[in-house]
Amino acid sequence: MTYACFTLEITDHIAHIRFNRPDKANSMTLEFWRELPAVVDRISRGAEARVIVISSEGKHFTSGMDISVFMSGGLEGDPANIHVSAEAFRHRIRMLQDTFSALERARQPVLAAIQGGAIGAGVDLATACDCRYASADAFFAVQETAIGMTADVGTFPRLVRLIPEGWARQMAYTAERLPAGKAKEIGLVNEVFESHEALLEGVMAIARQIARHSPLAVSGCKAMANYARDHSTADALDYVSVWNAAMLRPEDIREAFIAQGEKRQPMFDDLKPIGD
User: Fold this and answer.
1) pLDDT tens digits for range 174-232
2) Residue 273 domain flag
3) CATH number at residue 249
4) Residue 237 is assigned to a structural domain of this protein
5) Is the separation of the CB atoms in 131 and 183 below 8 Å?
6) What is the pTM of this model?
7) Are 107 and 23 in a shared domain?
């Protein structure tokens, strides 16, 4: 299947989604907002890969929302019926928000390889991923403030959990560019690579390492990390005990130890596809 805004390649248990509109700075058109959650949900539900990597072609990761989305209706509303228009616009925003929530609900880890600018909604996309990696020229900007709006597709609930609150507020209030080095210093990215090529090579190496582990165990790690982030320690401890009571797989543990002793890569069953 072909997509308007990115390519998809699945090799060696790794699904690589690569934004492919470098001439438009990989801006997010209406097709993007429909296609990205659809492909991520497909990979997740179909267990088509063990890891998802998101990267881009060209100078920038993404310049954020394409102007066509703003111009496609919904902002101005109906002057004669502003309250009904506002209610409809709320649902439009919720649809956009769901695009990035798909990354969080995916059963597989999602790794972002960020080069150049992650601007506006690009910050929202990055913060919805499990791990973020950047090239030395990368920067992050909550650009919405500079164009007269409050970021609304994921910046505030996610960014303030990833970095110190004061930095999240400063980024939002000023719309300044946060460079890759500072982003690593405050915990927004895991690692900074010297070049775009080194970035993708490094992220793919991490993806391959993840893909070698038990998909069931890795999926459990993601489920537990998401749950622990949003719940108390006591609730998270209880949930992981229930998870392992139901889904701890002795066969995977045995295979991991045998493979280690035999100095080979372990062989694990993939997750099962789930229906609609």
Assistant:
1) 999 999 999 999 999 999 999 999 999 999 999 999 999 999 999 999 999 999 999 99
2) no
3) 1.10.12.10
4) yes
5) no
6) 0.94
7) yes
